[in-house]
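job 3f2a | input accepted
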Amino acid sequence: MKVALLQMTSGIDPQANARAIVDAVADAAAGGAAMLFTPEMSGLVDQNRARARPHLRAEGDDGVLAATRAAAREHKLWVHLGSLAVDGEDGRLANRAFVIDDQGEIRARYDKLHLFDVDLPSGESWRESASYAPGEGAVVVGTPAGQLGLAICYDLRFADLFRALSNAGATVLAIPAAFTRPTGAAHWHILQRARAIESAAYVISAAQTGTHEDGRATYGHSLVVDPWGTVLLDMGEEAGLGFAEIDPARVADVRARVPVLAHRRAIPGVVSA
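job 3f2a | predicted structure (273 res):
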């Protein structure tokens, strides 16, 4: 089956970002895809909190989510909306992914578990925990692409999440992202391939790319990796739509050849010698 990935340079205007997603839904459907995947923070990338805040809503009032649901319904296409910043219940924001079916209904939600707080040598400073509440659990949902395990960006570095997802039946892992360029160049490809290999699952990772209106720069290189670790699609640095073919039978084949899931064991306590 064919999947589509939207690589974006999301800006500070949610309406413009929504139009890009709606156009991609139409183009993905016309291109024969069964499901479209979009990046982390598809609806808004703006590190100016005062400017961004008026655009942030509870999910029921979010215009980007509403537009995506309507487009999915119109074009009969499943969409993994990589994430949106939405108002949470405790006064903080949630970095929330949505799986939307071909009737425009929300089938699953996932709030990013691991928050990225760091000062980089480049001078960039990221403090997700200053505004966002972490999620509270992992999510697997049935989709046309397979049993889809949900993660977001920095989650990529925490292998225990993907062990839990594959143990729960995930055959495809979605890891939408807005990776920085320094960390992307160093770690993006190797971590994506590692998650695919250790889970014997497909990895589909739509990414932000380029220099954004707020001055932030992201790495791009949206990827599709097969369960053997082979890169099927690398979109480089240009924004746009990409397609890849995935085969559910490939998961069973790889898991039969190297049955890592069957051989997993609980790790006993570590002894310090």
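job 3f2a | The first helix runs from residue 14 to 30.
job 3f2a | closed
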